[in-house]
Specification:
This is Reverse transcriptase domain-containing protein. The protein is 42% helix and 14% strand. With 480 residues, the protein is α+β, with helices and mostly antiparallel strands. The protein has 3 domains: 3-281, no CATH class; 289-376, no CATH class; 383-480, no CATH class. Strand 12 (264-265) and strand 13 (268-269) form a beta hairpin. Helix 9 (290-312) runs antiparallel to helix 10, helix 10 packs antiparallel against helix 11 and helix 13 (385-402) packs across helix 14. The longest helix is centred in the middle third of the chain and has 23 residues, at 290-312. It is globular. The relative contact order is 0.11.
Length: 480
């Protein structure tokens, strides 16, 4: 945008701010249905993507920054969704560490994974305005937010055809840059009001819930405590106009013996499961992480077979395009959540096998050609995936160290843990960084460029050396 356009946009935003009114185009959403899977004739198999006015989104971003500057310090640490410097891995790491500590000290954890029905679309706007005022958002800022919802309408666009406009009187605006911070503020109030004494205690911190936007995990040391916590949470949701989906919410107990956990919401019993996929990562009632790694490798292999038949196997596709598919599709599927992985020799071997299976297809080779893995990587100019994973784990370790106490997973970050735990893996990588490792100052790896596992590592600087040594006592897990 040139200077003239920027000047006009600034003037328009200032008029909207001072008048407390916005053009109707800024309040109009164009819903484009995107097919997910299943029967093409079933509406629920489509996801609606809402397109909004670009000038209106600029205005929404300005308001979002002002709202966040007010509410960010008030939102509790248990919420990691839509917050700067936090992501899904923070919440996954926290849950993994709590479960590891509980398993080590033979302490049970009762968990309820709560699913809210159409959470974004159910937020009552009147209740939302009251919540914002409680958090200190009022005056011109609140009026500006309300102006975006005054005459909120939408239409559906399919294959160039448009439906008639219809009013949208409840819920947050899909696609609006302001909606995420409004939603986590709304959820924070529900979480605060439902809190009681029921919790688990880990690293000196009482934890009763973990939230990532509308993905909620409630935790307690017994079934009765969890029922009390869930009852209050359900009541606060109902009072705020939200509803818990009893068919999608599930319970799980981490214990060395099988324990029943019959939780009720509105007279209905929630199903108890032995495993649950939380934020894309599988957690089990036995606390085993290898099941998730098996699932990752299986998902990546399924994608590889599909791509090999339809795309990668085509001879007319260039090697550069195949590598792009490898980096953008295959690797993210294979390595999602790798920050939690315990890198045993078996895990390293399986990851390397999965990596080379795809790279051989990229290079047009098979096992019968008997070409060494290192030669294939060198020919494709691809670094070992294990090296990439370990470098990423070290970056994650640094993220934990830099965060203040209880910044998501950081409240339990710098302590020595039992061998084989997630934290043990991170600290082992960290403490071994130095000369003679892939993280050394010259990127050296010892004799003939090989690491301890015998893998050939590149001679270029893989990552800067990490020097800080971490010390600390063993953390104690205890129920409360």
């Amino acid at each position: 945008m040139d200077v003239v356009g920027l000047s006009w946009l600034t003037r328009l935003c200032n008029i909207a701010w001072s008048s407390g009114a916005v053009p109707v185009e800024w309040q109009t959403g164009v819903v484009v249905p995107i097919f997910k899977k299943g029967d093409l004739r079933v509406c629920s198999n489509y996801r609606g993507i809402t397109l909004l006015s670009l000038p209106g989104k600029v205005y929404s971003k300005v308001l979002e920054r002002r709202v966040r500057s007010i509410v960010e310090s008030q939102i509790e640490e248990e919420q990691c969704g839509f917050r700067p410097g936090r992501g899904t891995v923070d919440q996954l790491y926290t849950l993994a560490r709590v479960m590891e500590g509980a398993w080590e000290f033979a302490q049970p954890i009762h968990m309820c994974f709560v699913d809210l029905e159409k959470a974004y679309d159910r937020v009552p706007r009147g209740t939302l305005w009251g919540t914002l005022q409680e958090y200190g958002v009022g005056g011109f800022l609140l009026r500006a937010i309300q102006s975006l919802y005054q005459r909120s309408v939408s239409l559906v666009r399919i294959a160039g055809s448009k439906s008639d406009l219809f009013p949208v009187r409840v819920g947050l605006r899909q696609g609006c840059l302001l909606s995420p911070v409004l939603f986590i503020t709304f959820m924070d109030r529900i979480s605060r009001c439902s809190r009681g004494v029921e919790c688990v205690q880990f690293g000196g911190r009482r934890i009763s819930s973990l939230l990532f936007a509308d993905d909620v995990v409630l935790l307690a040391s017994s079934s009765s405590d969890l029922q009390l916590l869930l009852g209050r949470f359900a009541a606060e949701c109902e009072a705020a106009g939200m509803r818990i989906s009893t068919s999608k919410s599930e319970t799980m107990v981490l214990d060395r013996k099988r324990v029943a956990c019959h939780l009720r919401v509105g007279g209905e019993v929630l199903p108890q499961v032995e495993e649950f996929k939380y934020l894309g990562v599988l957690f089990t009632s036995e606390g085993r992480r290898d099941r998730e790694i098996d699932r990752r490798i299986g998902s990546a292999s399924a994608v590889m077979r599909t791509l090999s038949r339809s795309v990668v196997g085509k001879r007319e596709l260039s090697q550069k395009a195949r590598l792009s598919i490898y980096r953008s599709i295959y690797v993210p599927i294979l390595t999602y959540g790798h920050e939690l992985w315990v890198m045993t020799e078996r895990t390293r071997s399986r990851i390397q096998a999965a990596e080379m299976s795809f790279l051989r297809r990229v290079a047009g080779l098979s096992l019968r050609d008997r070409v060494r893995s290192s030669d294939i990587r060198e020919g494709l100019r691809v670094e070992p995936l294990l090296l990439r994973i370990e470098r990423s784990q070290l970056r994650w370790f640094g993220h934990l160290v830099r965060m203040p106490p209880w910044g998501g997973g950081s409240g339990m970050s710098c302590r020595q843990e039992a061998p084989g735990s997630t934290q043990d893996t991170l600290e082992r990588l960290h403490l071994q960084s130095g000369p003679g490792t892939p993280w050394g100052p010259a990127g050296g790896t010892g004799e003939e460029g090989r690491g301890e596992d015998g893998l050939e590592l590149p001679s270029w600087d893989a990552a800067p050396a990490t020097r800080t040594r971490i010390s600390g006592g063993r953390q104690r897990f205890s129920p409360h």
